[in-house]
Amino acid sequence: MTHLPTHHDIDDHDRGLAHDLQIISALASRRRALRWFAGAGGIALLGGCDSGGSASTSTGSVSTPTPTPTATATATPTPTPTSTGSCVADPRETNGPYPADGTNTSSGPTSNVLTATGVVRSDIRSSFVGSTTAVPGVQVTLTLTIVNVNASCAALAGYAIYIWHCDALGRYSLYDVPAESWLRGVGVTDANGQVTFTTIFPGCYTGRWPHIHFEVFSSLSAATGGNFARLISQLAMPADTCATVYNGSSTYTSSVANLARITVASDNVFGNNTAAQIAQQTPTMSGSVANGYTASAVIGLAI
């Protein structure tokens, strides 16, 4: 291998033209080599600044890493409670002398039907405590919707409601008829705040407008556990349907004269309520005496 000098000696000027050309060629080759190594070193330095933090050993072209897109989380919308439209808070009414809810002593087999097995049921036309006797009358399928008036009438799911009322002759089970427990039952509202009962149209007895009693509880356990009602109130049956049923069915013969002597305004329970409260307490009904009626009402609670 030919030795390439790294600097000029004094003797180099005394060896002739051929020797000088050899020296010039060697120096040019050395400069090209230095430029090549300088370029390679720059590439290595660039490779050492990649996203991984490690130097590249490649002497080829440097690839710029393509950023991986970061997924953007999509927020799950909060469900908006279903609104039933306009509503008012139902007034608190008396539970009357025949509730069988533990607040008074009945003359029948129980003073608190809420603790009795079988009280949770949708068809309340028959007895369920010591008897299965069914009571006669015009069938009514009643759907109640319980809402929160302080939350834009949002439906209240999981609430329990206890309803009870008199039969076609104006009698109450467990009191006027101690051995029977018909026309009493508890239901629980679904996701729409609704619960449906199958019952009969109540009769009209002396001194009261035809009505259905109800108590609302925050849960089934509250209802069956004792006296913890969030609301105690009543529904007023619509006047036109009362007249049609009482005059169209012989089962309600005694109700005709009693209805003629009472109005909603003169009733000692409904008489002092506002027009908006009465409107909400009066179920909307459709149907016939022969085929039965469907009815619906909103019950407003201020939660």
Report on this structure.
This protein has 303 residues and is of the alpha+beta class. Helices cover 20% and strands 19% of the residues. The strands form two sheets. Strands 1, 2, 5, 8 and 9 form a five-stranded mixed beta sheet that branches. The protein has a four-stranded antiparallel beta sheet with strand order 4-3-6-7. α3 runs antiparallel to α4. The termini are far apart.
The radius of gyration over CA amounts to 46 Å
- CA-based shape: globular
The share of residues in helices is: 10-25%
Class from helix and strand fractions: alpha+beta
Uncertain segments: 1-83
Order of helices and strands: HEEEEEEHEHHHEE
Brief characterization of the structure:
The chain is 20% helix and 19% strand.
Task: List its salient traits.
303 residues, alpha+beta, 5-stranded mixed beta sheet, 4-stranded antiparallel beta sheet, 5 helices, 20% helix, globular, disordered N terminus
Helix and strand layout, with pairings?
Elements: H1 17-47, E1 139-148, E2 154-155, E3 160-164, E4 184-188, E5 194-200, E6 211-217, H2 220-225, E7 231-236, H3 239-248, H4 253-260, H5 275-281, E8 284-288, E9 292-301
Helix pairs in contact: 3-4
